[in-house]
Amino acid sequence: MKILEYLRNYDGRPLRFMEVCGTHTAQIHRNGLPALLPPSIELVSGPGCPVCVTVSAYIDRLIALGMDPGNRILTFGDMLRVPGSAGSLSEARAKGCSVRMVYSPMDALKLAKEDPAHTYIFAAVGFETTTPVYALLVQEALEQGVENLRLLTSLKVMPPAVDWICAHNGESAQEARGDCRSETVRESGRSRKTGEARRIDGFLAPGHVSVITGSRVFAPLAEKYGLPFVVAGFEGEEILAAIAVLVKLQGQGKVWNMYPSAVTEEGNRQAQERVERFFEPCDAAWRGLGVIAGSGRRLKKEYAAFDAGSEGLTEDAGGNPACCCAQVLMGHIRPRECPLFGKVCTPQTPQGACMVSTEGSCFSCWQSEGL
Fold this sequence. Notes:
This protein is an alpha/beta fold.
C-alpha cells in the first residue's frame, strides 16, 4: 500500500494530529492504526464524543427531573452510566428515578402521545449531526399537538471547541484547564511528563459533522492558526489517506475534503435551516474545556415550552478526583496515561465518561489493547 509506505518512511519532524470525532476514535483503535505509524507521527483524541464532554450538572438535572413522579426520562443507552456529582442515571433508577432507554428521539413522541398523564423528557445530547433530529422532533410535536414532551438540551457545535484547543495549542494541561497529576512515562523511547506541552499539527475533521456543516466551516480556523484540516471517511484506509494528506499539508492553513461522497463544501442546507428555525447559539460547558462562548445550541424563546430547564448547567463536580477525562479530551494525555486506566477504571467500573461511551477514547483504547 503506497499510502502506508509513505507514512512509514516519513523522516521529518515529529507530528501530532488530533481527531475530533468519536467514530474516528473508535475506528482508529479498531483498525490498529497507531501501530502502523512511525513514532514521529502521533494520533491523539479530542473532544469528539458528545457523551464524554457532557458535564455532571446535566446528569444531576436529569436525575432530579426523573425523581419527580410526573416525569419520565428518556435517553440513549450510553448516557445511563455517565457519572454525575452523586451517581449515574443507572444508579438513580435503582432509587426510584424514572429512566428509560430508547433508540431514537422519535420514540419520545410516540410514548408521550400514548401517556398524556406524564411529561416525557428526552436527554438531547449531541453535536451538529443530531441537532437536526431534535429540531424535527419539536416540529412533529407541534404539528401533532403533543404538549407533554420536553428536551433537556446539551447540544454542542464543534468549531468553537476546536478554536479553544487551537488557542491553547502548545500549553500544558495545567496551563490550559487541567489539574490531573503529572507522572513520568516512557513513550517512543523517550521520557516525558504526562500533561506536558505538546503541540497539535493538524486535525482530522469530523466526517459526520461535516455532512451537516460542510467542509467550509473549518476554513476560518485553518487560516487563523495556519493548521491543516482534513475531512476523513471512516474506513481504516480512508483515515490513513487523510493522515497522509495532513503530513503533506503540515504548516499550511488549508481544508481538504477526503470524504466527497458524503461531504460537500456547503453541507446540508435543509438540515441547517431546520436547526436555525428552532435553535439559537448559546454558551455551553464542555468537560475539560469549561464554558466556551457560542459553542452550544438552545431552543429559541418561542419554543421555550419544550425546554425542561437546560439553562445554567455548567458545573462539572464529583466523581473520582484522580480521573483524567478532562486531560484526555484536551489531548494532553493518552488514556493509558491516566493512573486509573485499566485498574480502577474499566468498562465495567467506569470512573469517567471517556470509559462509558463506545465512542470514548478510553473505551476504544481499552478494547484495542484487549485488556
